[in-house]
Amino acid sequence: MPKIGIIYNDLKPVACKAAQDLQTQLTEKGWTVVLETGRGGLLGYSQPEGPVCHTSIDHLIPPNFDQDMAFAMVLGGDGTVLSAYRQLAPCGIPLLTVNTGHMGFLTEVYLNQLSEVLDKVIAGDYEVEERTMLTVQLYREKVLLWEALCLNEMVIHREPLTSMCHFEITIGRHAPVDIAADGLILSTPTGSTAYSLSAGGPVVTPDVPVLQLAPICPHSLASRSLVFSDKEAVSIFPATPNRMVLVVDGNGGCYVLPEDRIHVEKSRYAARFIRLEEPEFFRVLREKLGWGLPHIAKPTSVELP
């Protein structure tokens, strides 16, 4: 019997109702439907008294989600989509992303369109677009303390009321560089339209095999965003006496002490998006962020009497 998975945001009544309705509809068509909330992909935040909250990447896979599953759907906003990929990327399950939130930059269809596209997806009439993900790991004296999958970005930043931070960064085989800033953003092409964009980084189309390093409020005019090959691993050493905070996809993270090391590299897992049409990134930029819209014409001048 074919199997479909549904991950939904259980904090949104509309997503809960849609998940139940879909389960009933698909079960009547002979499918086995596995429901799971997006909470399983939420990383949570560590506390000062317990600075590390480690769950290994493969342990976030929900029960009964496996390679026998034809595809899965996620019902929610961008946060739920990010959570779902942390849960399902290790399985290689393609996801149909359904927007029940607001902007829905990462979603493929709106909820009111789902009924008309569901048969098309069930019939396999779609493409799969793979997006780069990152593996983020925190080491202390060569011991792995924390790790997470990341689709958008990894951020390390100072705590409130502390001074500016210093970072020693090594990218691949290249010589280390020093950056003084409030923090650092290391993003994928998918994440180039998120926090990195707000910090002054460029937009990168999803098919370009690069990563991007953007300092947050750097203390030098020489410290600017850097785009480099995604084949290069990155090591970050906090060269400061203050404790810092590591955050992945704006969702959760852990404390970073001066003796710690952060290792980031392209993950062997990819985020697999179901696309009903050939992906058109510029259209999404235009519709969601207003990029490239024509200027509004100036009003015709009126002669005064």
Commentary on this structure:
- With 305 residues, the protein is α+β, with helices and mostly antiparallel strands.
- The protein is built from five helices and 17 strands.
- The protein has two domains: 3-131 and 269-289, 3-Layer(aba) Sandwich (Rossmann fold), CATH 3.40.50; 133-268, Tumour Suppressor Smad4.
- Helix content is 16%, strand content 37%.
- It has a six-stranded antiparallel β-sheet, covered by helices on one side. A six-stranded antiparallel β-sheet has the order 13-12-11-8-15-16, with no helix packed on it.
- It is globular.
- The N and C termini lie far apart (80 Å).
- The relative contact order is 0.16.
- The model has no long low-confidence stretch (mean pLDDT 89).
Task: Compile the SSE list and pairings.
Elements: E1 3-8, H1 13-28, E2 32-37, E3 71-76, H2 78-88, E4 95-99, E5 109-110, H3 114-122, E6 127-140, E7 143-150, E8 153-158, E9 165-171, E10 177-181, E11 183-187, H4 195-198, E12 210-216, E13 226-229, E14 234-238, E15 244-248, E16 252-256, E17 260-275, H5 281-289
Parallel strand pairs: 1-2, 1-3, 3-4, 4-5
Antiparallel strand pairs: 6-7, 6-17, 8-11, 8-15, 9-10, 9-14, 11-12, 12-13, 14-17, 15-16
